[in-house]
Amino acid sequence: MTTFTRRAALASMGAALATPALMKHAHAAEQTLRVHHFLPPQAPMGKFFETWAAELVEASNGALDVQVFPAMQLGGKPGQLADQARQGVCDIAWTLPAYTAGRYLLAETIGLPFMVTNAEKTSVAFHTIMDEFGTEEYKGLKTLAFHTHDGGKLHTTKAPILSAADLEGTKMRAPNQGTGDLLAALGSEPVFFPVSEMVVGLTNGVIDGCCLPFEVVPAYKLQELTKYSSEAAPGARGIYANPFAIVMNEKTYEGMSDDLRGVIDANSGIELSQRIGKDFDAAEAFGRSVVEKQGNEIHQIPAEEIARWAEAAQPIHDEWVVKLNDAGYDGQAVLNRINELLDAG
């Protein structure tokens, strides 16, 4: 079977073909890498992975053939992505630790309420604490980047959220356990399901709103499903940010030639985390413009109200310190270090 025929067969099974830039070098490839993620290809991270894959091909002079499979095209569920990379279902995966709550405790820490400024700065802080405290957390995997999105907003269908009183009696899609605990403390009923299932929840009225950054809005046309967005006032930290990790099968990485490992190393690490964070900040601005163009209302939650919410979140942080301690970390030292990095000029 020719290379073209094999690719055609993959396409017929619903797999994504490599970009033209990748196919140009396919005949010379020494190593094929499959990248798997859960978002649609038109989402900002979907576009990023196509660009990054092409960069790996170019940097390797075509010795790498990098194929990107968005929207779980290799099968499984988003919470299985890290294991898929570990087991060789794919070679590289983009994972969300919140989808396997309690398994990657250190990585989840950055997802606690009010642990985010902007995406770029928070991504650098996240990668730094993983380097300093979490080198053993992703055993069996080569970690390539750790990053976050910008601070999440509250997008609702019936009324804006300006205080805890506005949350009472609502059902809100929570992005992770810590944010869900905060919503519950403020009087809302948190509902948990992946972002890919959120459209159905909003359409059917199962939820009254969701916690998300603006950058996700265009990919799922959430501006058409919600009418109001509420964000922390300028100067206050964002309500939350989900942490993400790009991980690689360790055996695949170790089995590559020195030159190809060098290509991976040169295109990963804290610089990649910072780059992705910066991209997320740009995508956040675009997503906001889409919401504004739709005519939806964007409200700011007053700083004094956010301060009350942060006080309500303190028990959540305290409980997390105990969890980290039980897992063998110095929990308070971890939180102190994150706050130090986020507060640094």
From TrEMBL:
Subcellular localization, as worded in the UniProt entry: Periplasm
CC terms in the record's Gene Ontology section: periplasmic space
InterPro entries in UniProt: DctP_fam (IPR018389), TAT_signal (IPR006311), TRAP_DctP_sf (IPR038404)
Protein's UniProt keywords contain Methyltransferase: no
Keywords: Periplasm, Signal
GO biological process: transmembrane transport
Signal peptide: 1-28
Stored NCBIfam families: TRAP_S1 (NF037995)
Name of the protein this chain belongs to: TRAP-type C4-dicarboxylate transport system substrate-binding protein
